[in-house]
Design brief:
Strand content: 15-25%
Largest sheet: 7 strands, mixed
Helix content: 25-40%
Number of strands: 12
Bound molecules: S-adenosylmethionine
Length: 311
């Protein structure tokens, strides 16, 4: 039994991010030190109950299916965040409701029970800061496609105040949040409607720009090719995806197998990595990094990195 309390420290974060401990910036290291990243690994009966609960929930048909019909749901969800933000002008109102405190999480292919109910959002805050500081240094504008509540954008604007930050989404409520936030906080930020399924080719990216998607392209099933073509032709300096990647799970591990089942049940994206590798063989893109996240929510590892550029 390995049921004692453990704690994620600098070296575990480095291994999860795919970097060396000394490459983690000081402010990220400070966040790691300030937060409570202690947990227990679920074992025995506790593990069985979590696994059976997850499988039951997936198979009971309670989860929505990703795709073109989901726009009204996103409008409703981000509309609620917009309303709350307009009342308070507090960016904490933008934390998406899919961060659900207090649930078991997944780490290194096991279920874990964190001591702090906010373990996941705290982990994500460290990851996001590290990701943005490590890969977003280049000089041009920054574009988050599928930016949702826009809650990643203040971090980008604070880190890079001289750079224009675009938040794009197919939901008008999301676009309104970004523009309201820009106005209220005087950030160099712009919201704009953009649909992965029908990319607007007249929307030209600024030179040396950085593009990111975070848990957004997952929503496209297998209908991401038009967007991928748009990105390849737009030639940003770098494209950084943090998305669940079904191909990297191990189907012989039951915790991973449950995530595969969840991913396929919700019809999240598949095959993107193969498509990128094909484009690489054709000399059209260069894949710079692929890294499985080995951390995620009860159901899915949402933060796997795929980083590439057009050549
Ligand atoms: C899980 S949320 C992630 C939001 C944000 N990136 C984050 O990190 O919280 C998925 C986002 O993808 C957007 N989305 C889904 N399908 C889309 C499409 N066809 N075009 C553009 N955005 C889309 C949704 O509106 C939603 O904002």
């Amino acid at each position: 039994m390995n049921n004692e309390i453990q704690c994620l420290g600098l070296s575990e974060f480095a291994s999860l991010f795919g970097c060396k401990a000394e490459e983690i910036p000081q402010d990220c290291a400070q966040l790691i030190a300030e937060n409570d990243f202690r947990y227990r690994v679920a074992e025995g009966k506790e593990y069985e109950e979590i696994l059976q609960g997850v499988l039951h929930k997936i198979d009971s048909g309670g989860f929505s299916i990703a795709g073109e019909e989901r726009l009204p749901n996103w409008e409703k969800g981000w509309g609620e965040n917009l309303e709350a933000f307009l009342k308070t002008k507090n960016i904490l109102e933008l934390v998406p409701k899919y961060f659900r405190p207090g649930l078991p999480l997944r780490l290194f292919q096991q279920y874990i029970l964190p001591l702090d109910p906010n373990f996941e959002i705290n982990w994500y805050s460290v990851f996001r800061l590290w990701l943005f500081k490590t890969y977003f240094k280049s000089s041009g504008a920054i574009y988050e496609f599928g930016c949702g509540s826009g809650f990643n954008l203040p971090v980008l604007s604070s880190l890079y105040p001289d750079r224009k930050v675009f938040g794009l989404d197919w939901s008008q409520a999301s676009v309104d949040i970004v523009n309201q936030m820009a106005k209220a906080c005087r950030w160099n930020m712009e919201g704009r409607r953009f649909d992965f399924f029908k990319p607007d080719k007249s929307f030209i990216l600024e030179p040396s720009s950085i593009v990111t998607t975070i848990g957004a392209l997952e929503q496209t099933g297998q209908k991401y090719m038009d967007f991928l073509d748009y990105l390849v032709d737009s030639k940003p300096a770098l494209v950084v995806h943090a998305e669940p990647t079904v191909e990297w799970y191990d189907k012989n591990n039951p915790v991973d197998e449950a995530a595969i089942r969840f991913h396929k049940t919700r019809r999240y994206w598949e095959g993107f990595i193969d498509k990128l590798r094909q484009l690489e063989k054709q000399g059209r893109v260069q894949v710079i990094k692929t890294k499985r996240s080995y951390f995620g929510s009860l159901y899915v590892e949402g933060y796997s990195q795929t980083i590439w550029k057009s050549v």
